[in-house]
Amino acid sequence: MPSCSRSRSRAALALALAAAGALGCGTYFRVNKPLAAWNPERGYRAELHERPQASQELELLLAFSGGGTRAAAFAYGVLEELAVTHVAFDGRVRSLIDEVDQVSGVSGGSFTAAYLGLHGRDAFRDFPQRFLERNVQSALLIRLLWPINWLKLFSPYWARSDLAADYYDQTIFDGARFRDLARADAPFVAIHATDLTTGSPFAFVQDVFDYLCSDLSSYPVSRAVASSSAVPIVLSPITLRNYPNCGFEAPRWVTEAQQESGELDRRYVNARNLGGYLAKKRRYVRLIDGVVSDNLGVRGPFETWSSVDAPKRRPEGSRTREVVLVIVNAQTTPDDQWDKFDLLPSLSVILDAATSAQVNRYNLETIELLKQRFKLWNTRTEKWNPPQRFTLIETSFVDVKDPAERKYLNGLTTSLSLPEEAVTRLRHAARDALREDPGYHALIQQLGRAD
User: Fold this and answer.
1) At what angle do helices 108-119 and 68-83 cross, to 10 degrees?
2) Cα separation of 118 and 174, whole Å?
3) Rounded to whole angstroms, how far apart are CA atoms 397 and 61?
4) Alpha carbon 397 to chain centroid distance?
5) For the segment 42-60, what is each residue's pLDDT rounded down to a tens digit?
6) What is the spatial distance between Cα 440 and Cα 448, in angstroms, rounded to a whole number?
7) Cα–Cα distance between 427 and 422 in angstroms, integer?
8) CA 146, chain centre distance (Å)
9) Whether residue 34 has a cis bond before it, omega within 30° of 0
10) Chain-centroid distance, C-alpha 145
């Protein structure tokens, strides 16, 4: 009998190992497909994305920061306020939610951005139930504990972020691909992650996928969001394949910046990072949380803007008078309670404070750089006929007037699980903060409020 028992045990173990091996081999698949031939007139590109019903006089851009569910709920509250703000310009009354041209999302903010891009106004029907009020963190942990997923995790090609992406795909994004974002009743969406090797922002747009000779249209939205929110150590990097030459021609400035001798400036570093994809020595690109390179979701676009300049005269056919960037920043401010006692803070508090300090300082620098760039552009475009104006609006917890409410919001953790009460208070705080922002007031007055 003991011999039979040992035989059964060995057979069960062999079966389990065989299943693990089979699953391991089966989970290695190329999720980003190659481009047969590069075509700049096709693919998910901002310049090809049109909103026929939106005004041509206003270009409204939104940027949603990282910060887990806290950031996603705060961003959603801003959308709710835009939906109830009506202005009378360009010959008719409009809701500002219908005027949003582009949305950039990082980490937690990428969930809200992607859902808006997929559903447009319909996002107001069920996004709170499908994501904001769902305990995503516990759901991921439960999936990690499922025995079938233990077998998958034996594979070197399937890891924790793949598990998260599958969950997002099934429960939030319904199998959507980037081609599903190309809808006329929703804004263009750019989801941002971080290139693990270079530390630079990586945007899920076809203009960046061109460097990889890869087709973004068939790529799952859930995997882009999983990349954008892949917190180092907690979650694993998401891998993209860099394919051989497809006939892609990089913009002239990328080549020129690498050939020019001089200082190691922002333009050169940006061109060098892009050139690294073109060299094809990097066969794979590993992506992690977008917060690592840019918590606001504007650094990537800013690097591009820094490489070009505003034209000296209005482009032919352009009617744009107002270009507005609204940064929705859910960063928290440092907690000074430990400075009141002679006890050392815990390791988790120290790590959180160190990370937050770096992110907050980088946020400040990014916003200051944008202000300088907008000011420079305004000196040029104000001379156009008619003039064009660039406006930067930042809404954050700092704009929350009630000290007690501001303290409550700052105490919310960065996670994918918040109580329903916290989600509700974040939404209300975002609406109040945007409504009372002086820059937003000035914009509404400029456009013409419709009461």
Assistant:
1) 40
2) 10
3) 20
4) 19
5) 999 998 888 888 888 899 9
6) 12
7) 9
8) 29
9) no
10) 28
Q: Which amino acid does the sequence have at 317?
A: G
Instruction: State how far the Cα of 120 lies from the Cα of 98, in Å rounded to an integer.
Output: 9
Q: Side chain identity at 414, as an amino acid letter?
A: T
Q: Which secondary-structure segment (H or E) carries 326?
A: strand 322-329
Average pLDDT, the chain: 85
Tell me the pTM.
Answer: 0.89
Q: Which residues of the chain have pLDDT under 70?
A: 1-30, 260-263, 300-312, 334-342, 345-357, 450-451
Alpha helices in 198-247 (DSSP H): 206-209, 221-228
Q: How many CB atoms lie within 10 A of CB 8?
A: 10
Looking at residue 223, its amino acid is R
Cα–Cα–Cα angle for 7, 13, 17, nearest 5°?
145
> Residue 316 is encoded by which pair of tokens?
């032919």
Residue 17 tokens read as: 């190992």
- Strand-strand pairing, 188-195 and 100-106: parallel
User: Could you give the C-alpha distances from 25 to 162, 272, 283, 355, in angstroms and in order?
Assistant: 15, 35, 20, 37
Give one word for 325, left, alpha or beta, with left for phi > 0 and alpha for psi -120 to 50. Answer: beta
The 10 Å Cβ neighbour count of residue 253 is: 16
Dist. CA 254–CA 270, nearest whole Å? 8
